């Protein structure tokens, strides 16, 4: 698995979204590298990790990343948020959790089992993307990028950036794109939230069409001490068009997290 290490200072681990790679975080890297050591992950099958045969599964990927990174604050965008949340729930090596346009569950739960989760997308969205990938790989990826940016204040610029980044490190492997869609459709980590022992920050884009802000607000309320913030003009990738706001929020959160008392006494280093 390819992990790019940039900057100096306290460690941050950054996990990208579906079909992308660590290079998509360039605006945040530019704003944070003078104060933090950023560990930019290319998930298996993506970017420079295209030939990595680690399964695109929560436990396998998190174990591999934990083995190669120091204690750190983990930041997950979209699909990457599922890996970050899973790591925060299972490892004391995670010193804080920042979720960017990500929730513990990406699809609607109609509440048949008594646990409704209405602030999400219909499961058919991911099922349709999976079917379309088989017929027209490139056009399907481009439609997903449009969905990432539609309605955002700086949507045109963000779409242009995502299109430039998409194949900048080679094409993502089709098998992991299908696996990623399955993760988005099937994963439910809501049970992990009440037991989180680290502070969490939930950054939503008010104009996000994939992860409604109401879902992120609800997730933050389920996590002890969870903090919620909303980027007024942000879509699904607010760290592109509103990089200053997102970087400032991460900076403030990282500073506060370093003083957060951890289980067993004392403060996190």
Describe this structure in words.
- By secondary structure, this protein is of the alpha/beta class.
- 40% of the residues lie in helices and 14% in strands.
- The protein has a 7-stranded mixed beta sheet, with helices on both faces.
- Helix 1 crosses helix 10 (243-257), helix 4 runs antiparallel to helix 5 (137-149) and helix 5 (137-149) packs antiparallel against helix 6 (155-166).
- Strand 6, helix 8 (213-222) and strand 7 form a beta-alpha-beta unit.
- Residues 263-269 have low confidence and may be disordered.
Strand content: 5-15%
Q: What strand order characterises the main sheet?
A: 1-3-2-4-5-6-7
H-E order: EEHEHEHEHHHHEHEHH
Percentage of residues assigned to helices:
40-55%
Shape: globular
Span from first to last CA? 27 Å
Largest sheet descriptor: 7 strands, mixed
Structural class: alpha/beta
* Unreliable stretches: 263-269
Counted beta strands: 7
The total of helices stands at 10
């Amino acid at each position: 698995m390819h992990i790019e290490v940039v900057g100096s200072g306290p460690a941050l681990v950054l996990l990208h979204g579906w079909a992308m790679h660590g290079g998509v975080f360039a605006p945040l890297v530019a704003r944070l590298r003078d104060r933090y050591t950023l560990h930019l992950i290319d998930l298996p099958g993506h970017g420079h990790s295209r030939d990595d045969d680690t399964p695109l599964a929560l436990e396998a990927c998190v174990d591999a990343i934990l083995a190669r990174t120091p204690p750190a604050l983990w930041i997950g965008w979209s699909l990457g948020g599922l890996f970050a949340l899973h790591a925060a729930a299972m490892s004391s090596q995670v010193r804080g959790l920042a979720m960017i346009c990500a929730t513990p569950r990406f699809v609607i739960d109609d509440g048949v089992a008594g646990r409704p989760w209405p602030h999400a997308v219909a499961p058919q969205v991911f099922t349709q993307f999976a079917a379309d990938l088989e017929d027209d790989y490139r056009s399907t990826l481009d439609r997903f990028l449009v969905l990432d940016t539609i309605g955002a204040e700086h949507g045109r610029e963000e779409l242009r950036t995502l299109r430039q980044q998409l194949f900048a490190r080679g094409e993502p492997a089709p098998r992991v794109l299908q696996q990623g869609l399955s993760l988005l459709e099937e994963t439910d980590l809501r049970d992990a939230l009440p037991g989180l022992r680290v502070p969490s920050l939930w950054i939503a884009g008010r104009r996000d069409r994939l992860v409604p802000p109401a879902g992120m607000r609800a997730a933050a309320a389920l996590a002890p001490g969870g903090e919620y913030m909303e980027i007024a003009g942000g879509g699904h990738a607010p760290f592109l068009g509103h990089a200053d706001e997102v970087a400032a929020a991460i900076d403030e959160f990282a500073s506060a997290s370093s003083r957060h008392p951890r289980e067993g006494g004392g403060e996190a280093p």
